[in-house]
Write a structure and sequence with these properties.
Elements: E1 3-8, H1 12-28, E2 36-41, H2 47-55, E3 61-69, H3 75-93, E4 98-105, H4 108-114, E5 115-117, E6 120-121, H5 122-147
Parallel strand pairs: 1-2, 1-3, 3-4
Antiparallel strand pairs: 5-6
């Protein structure tokens, strides 16, 4: 399996921990380093664009990793809604699964807790989800081939 990962550089203390978790999990399940392509974007909002590019680069799945922490303005709402809709759109219209690994937290501590802290690493979970979705996609492809034999 070959994976693309788009990671936001904003809140890098968190997003790079998610990235580390995702890569370790993919490798643990047999993916060689040269089959993992990582692309960096400035922030979470840009993940949809990067994911769209990665789906066209001979990968079996794309994982997006970001972190949006609630602030004093509605910026949080717009970013979260935009990236959620963008990734959903890619999944509905595409043939490559795009895995949503974006933390949307009320504060930094909640993000830390989910990026290797007491609630685990959501990057790990995104990687496991990607592996499972590739397997599902491969099963569907095989069933379609069987139908036309």
């Amino acid at each position: 399996m070959r994976f693309g990962i788009a990671v936001a550089d904003w809140n890098d203390q968190i997003t790079y921990a998610l990235l580390d978790g995702a890569i370790k999990t993919l490798k643990k399940h047999g993916t060689p380093s040269d089959q993992i392509m990582v692309k960096h974007v400035p922030g979470t909002f840009e993940l949809t664009f990067a994911a769209n590019i990665l789906t066209q680069m001979n990968v079996d799945a794309v994982i997006v990793l970001g972190c949006v922490i609630q602030g004093e303005t509605r910026h949080f709402d717009f970013i979260c809604q935009g990236v959620t809709q963008g990734i959903t759109h890619l999944n509905v219209d595409g043939v490559i699964p795009v895995i949503f690994g974006v933390l949307t937290t009320e504060n930094l501590q909640q993000a830390i807790d989910r990026a290797g802290g007491k609630h685990g690493n959501k990057g790990d979970e995104a990687a496991v989800t990607a592996i499972k979705m590739v397997a599902l996609n491969n099963d569907v492809d095989q069933e379609m081939e069987d139908l036309f034999e």
